[in-house]
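Translate sequence into structure tokens.
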Amino acid sequence: MTGEPTRWAWAVVDLDAYAHNVALLKTMVAPSGVWTVVKADAYGHGAVPVARAALEAGADGLCVAITAEAAELRNAGIDAPILVFSEQPLADIAEIVQLGLTPTVYRADYVTALADEVRRVGAMPLPVHVKIDTGMHRVGVDPVETPSLIAHIASHDDAIRLSGLYTHFAAADTPEHPANRIQSERFAKVLGELGPLAHDVAIHAVNSAGAMSMPAERRSFVRVGIATYGITPGDGVVQHCSNLMPVLSLHARVSRVQRIVAGEGVSYGHRFVADRSTTIATLPIGYADGVPRRLWSEGGEVLIGGKRRRITGVVTMDQMMVDCGDDPVSVGDEAVLLGRQGDDRIRSEDWARALDTIGYEITCGIGPRVPRVYARSV
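Result follows.
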């Protein structure tokens, strides 16, 4: 592991744990392939180091949300296939072609614009994947309109080529949800109507949760994101997650220690008032760094000295306070907000459960001013 940053708040990203998770998922879904999702700065873990670790672990390709994310990877020397999940602004098309990305398409005019740019620069035909909206109703072509869109792509075969067809399940983390069956049937119907064409291109449909719970939909490859980071995709698939290893941990050092007496308030609004004498430790990390402001009121805790300490008072922009009771604590002591200390661990899922959200939001919310330290645990 590289040295701890000078700032007394940092995140550690365990690339060996990440590689373990990718390998575990590859084994689970074989013989289907694995493309890893590194959008949103690899869910807050750092896109370039994580993408490299994914490819070293055997990932077949990478997935991002926007052109700029793909450009970051290309500029770092990563030449693996990169699928961009949605149509981008027309102003991005020149860069998409230049970088040799695999764009998602679902509108005829966008297909035409891509083809025109390929011809203008004399590039090799660009691979595209068609996204079919089977019920997520976010982006994609209507199933009924899919054949005509594919015919339109074929009319530009000197400049672009169809290399994939895919969809996305809205409720894969709840395997028994009726929407899964409906979407599966709609996708199968479209593929059936396309006949041999559907056998000549990559077919993909599922994310981490679907890869675990919907084996019939693993198809050519799966698109795995949250599970590669060691975070459970949802309660409905938790039974498949026991061997995943959390990748990110969040740390801080105690920056101030004070003793307060009963009746003293802590933090903005004095929404916490001590009912006894106690020791308050300040940590130099706050909601600007991704610690949710209201975590204090939802039972949020940190680990100091191997023990859980209750977050005390409203989390502020740059700092937060914790109640250490009568236990000794000193400036410079390490606090673990997410991760293991001693025999205990606080997980992203714990915060998510307390805040009625998902683990994705927790790690994505850890801000850029928190330094990432990349470690190898083996």
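Note: The mean pLDDT is 96.
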